[in-house]
Amino acid sequence: MASEETIPIIVEFTGGLEMLFSGERKHRLSVPAKDSKGDAVTVGWLVDYLCDEAMKDNRKEMFVLDGHVRPGILVLINDADWELEGEASYALQPNDNILFVSTLHGG
Amino acid sequence: MDKATSSAEILRSQIAATEEELGRLKEQLAAVEAKEAEDLNRLSMQEKPGLVTQGNWPLELEEYKRYGRQMIVPNVGIQGQLRLKAASLLIVGAGGLGCPAAAYIAGAGVGTIGIVDGDIVETSNLHRQILHSTAKVGMKKVESAIEFLASLNPNVRFIAHNEHLSPQNAKEIVENYDVVLDCTDHPTSRYLISDICVLLHKPLISASALRTDGQLIVLNSPPLPHGDPSGGPCYRCVFPKPPPAESVVSCGDGGILGPVVGIMGVLQALEAIKLIAAGKLTAREGEKAGEASMLLFSANSNPPFRSVRLRARRQKCFACSKEGGLTLESLSSGSLDYVLFCGVTTPVKILEPQERIEAREYERVLNGGKGKDHLLVDVREKVQFDICSIEGSVNVPFSTLQGNRALAADEKPLWIPQTLPTNAPIYLVCRLGNDSQIVVRKLKEIGLDKDGRYIGDIKDGLKEWKKQVDSSWPEY
Questions:
Q1: A and B: number of Cβ contacts within 8 A
Q2: A102 in Cβ contact with A16 (< 8 Å)
Q3: Residue A107 contacts B, CB cutoff 8 Å
Q4: Residues B194 and B232 sit within 8 Å (Cβ to Cβ)
Q5: Residues B221/B304, Cβ–Cβ less than 8 Å
Q6: Same structural domain for residues B317 and B374?
Q7: Burial readout B335-347 (b: 16 or more C-beta within 10 A, e: otherwise)
Q8: What ipTM is given for this predicted complex?
Q9: Domain for residue B75, yes or no?
Q10: pLDDT of B43-102, one tens digit each?
Q11: B337, B388: one domain
Q12: B311 and A105: CB-CB below 8 Å?
C-alpha cells in the first residue's frame, strides 16, 4: 500500500547534464516518501525516477549505464560524495539536495 | 661724458674681476666634489662593521621589490617566498588553463617552471590562451609561453618540453619537479598524469572547464606512498572508471568562455602557491590528508562557486592502494593503454555510400533548377546555425531530435513544410558529417522515405562545403 505522503527535495544538474533535463539546472521535486514496496525512497530510486519521469531526452545512456549512474558523473548528497553517505541506498530526507555533476575535461 | 665713460670702465673691470673669482670658486667646488665622491666610493667598498652587505640577504634586492606585495601577506612571508624560489613546478598543457596558471606562477617567483605541450598556437586559441598572441600563430605553444613568461620574470628558470606527455616520457619529465598542474583537455592525459604523480609522490592540482563551467581538485596531497590511507585521494579514487568516450565533449565542440577557463587556471596557480608557500610539497611526519574537496564553478549559477566534499583514498584503488597493481614499470613500458582505457570515438560511419552526397553534388541540386523540390535540414545547434547557414536550409538542432516525442513513427515532423512534395528529397547537413548520418537513419526509421523519397546527408558536412563549394564560408 503506497502512502500519499511526499517529501520535497532539490535535484541539480551541472557540467552539461542539465541538457538532458530540459536545460534546467535546478529542479524542485516532490517525490513519494515510499516506493511501490512501501520502503523509504533512496537515491537509487531517484535515479530511476529521473530517468523515467523527468528526462525528456532519449539518450538515457548519457545518465544511466548498465543500471548504474554512468562513469564520469559524481553524485553529491547535500554537497558530499554519495560514497560518504551510503551511495544508492541512502534514504532521501525532506529538503535534501542531490547534485549530479558530469566531469569536465576541457582545458 | 668723460665721467660716464670712466664709471662704465670701473664697472667692466669689476665684472671681469668677479667673473675671474667665480671661475676660481667653481674650480674649487669641482675639486671638493670629486674628492667627496672618491671618499664615498672608497667608503662603500669597505666592509664596514654594522652594515650588512647585499650578499647577506637571501634574495636579490630586485626580488624584494618584485615580490614585496605578496611577501607581506602573512600566509607567504619571507619563508614562503624562499620556498617558492626553491620549488619546481610542472605545467602539463599550455592552453586555456596552463596560460593563466603559468603567468601567475612565474609572477610569484617559483624558481623552476617546466611546461609540457606538443601543440602549436592556433587563431582559435587566442581568446583564452593569454600567453600567446596573433603574431605567434604557428609557433610551438611551449616556446610562445616561455617567451612571454621570461619577459615577465627573468628570475625564473624555464624548461621547455615540446612534446605531449606519454607513458614513455612521463617518468623522465615529471620526476624533476615538486608539484604538477594538470592543464590538459582529455581523460587519457588526466589518468596518466594522476598515475605518474601517485608513483612519484607528487601533489597534483587538476582543473578542467567547458562552456560556462569549471572544476578544480587538489589530488594526492599529502603525496604519501601508495597504500598509505593518510595520503590524499588520486584521480582514480574519485573517478575509478573513465566516462564513455562519446560523453566527452571538447572545447572545440562544446565551446568555452575565456574567463571561465581563465578563472580555473588562476585557481590552480593559487592552490600551487598556497601549497608551496606553506611547505606542503611533501608530507610532514604523521600528516593526514584533510577532507578532499572539489570546487565547482558555474558562471550562470547563484552562487557561482560551490565546494563539495569528496571521498578519501579508495581502499582498492588501482593506482594508490597497496593491492592496486600500478607500477612505474607497467606505466613506462606502455602496458597500460590509456587510450584504450578511456576509449576513442571513431568517426560515425553508419550510412551506405548511396545515402551520402558530396558537397559539390548538393550545390548542383541547389543551383540546377531543382532547388524547389528538396529540403536541406541543418542539424547543428541553433547557436551555430545563427552564425552561418546555407541559403534555404532549415534548422532542426540535433538535441531537439533526442526528445521522446521528437520523432514518432508515421507522424510527419512539424519542420517539414506542408508544400514539400512527399517524394521530394531531404538532405541533412551538420558541421563535420557525424550527426547528420544519425539523423538520416532516424528519419528512415520513422518511415519518412516510404514514398520513394531520397534521404541522405552531405558527406563531411559544412567543412567540405567550404572546401568544395564556397571558400568564403566562415568556418568557426
A1: 118
A2: yes
A3: yes
A4: no
A5: no
A6: no
A7: ebebeeebbeeee
A8: 0.93
A9: no
A10: 555 545 555 555 689 999 999 999 999 999 999 999 999 999 999 999 999 999 999 999
A11: no
A12: no
The predicted pLDDT at position B373 comes to: 86
**Does the annotation place B368 within a ligand binding site?**
no
On whether both B317 and B376 belong to a single domain, the answer is no
| Active-site annotation of B, residues | 251, 430
Residue at which a domain ends, from B342, B368, B389: B342
- Clarify whether residues B155 and B301 are in a common domain: yes
Q: How far apart are CA B267 and CA B295, in angstroms?
A: 10
Q: What is the domain extent for residue B173?
A: 87-342
Rounded Cα gap, residues B207 and B190, in angstroms: 10
Compute CA distances B163 → A50, B117, B168, B332, whole Å: 44, 5, 12, 16
Residue B185 marked ligand-binding: yes
For B365-403, write each residue's pLDDT tens digit.
Answer: 988 765 568 999 999 999 999 999 999 999 999 988 877
Q: Are residues B217 and B118 in the same domain?
A: yes
In a domain, B274, yes or no: yes
What span, in angstroms and rounded, lies between the C-alpha atoms of A105 and B207?
A: 8
pTM greater than the 0.80 cutoff:
yes
Number of Cβ within 10 Å of residue B102's Cβ equals 31
CATH code of the domain covering residue B265: 3.40.50.720
- Verify that B165 and B266 share a domain, yes or no: yes
Q: Which chain B residues in 266-285 lie under 8 Å from chain A, judged by CB atoms?
A: none
- Statement to judge: residues B332 and B364 lie in one domain: no
Largest CA distance in chain A: 52
Question: How many domains in chain B?
Answer: 3
Residue B247: pLDDT band (50, 70, 90) is confident
Are residue B312 and residue B169 in the same domain, yes or no? yes
Q: Nearest Cα to B105, choosing from B67, B59, B68?
A: B67
Looking at chain A from residue 32 to 91, which residues have their Cβ under 8 Å from any Cβ of chain B? 56-59, 61-62, 65, 70-74, 76, 79-81, 83-84
Which of B342, B363, B386 terminates a domain? The answer is: B342
Considering the four listed CATH numbers 3.10.20.30, 2.60.40.420, 1.10.540.10, 3.30.70.270, the one that applies to the domain covering A6-102 is 3.10.20.30
- Say what the pLDDT of residue B289 is: 84
Whether residues B210 and A79 touch (CB distance < 8 A) is answered with: no
CATH number at residue B448: 3.40.250.10
Angle at B431 between CA B430 and CA B432, to 5 degrees: 100
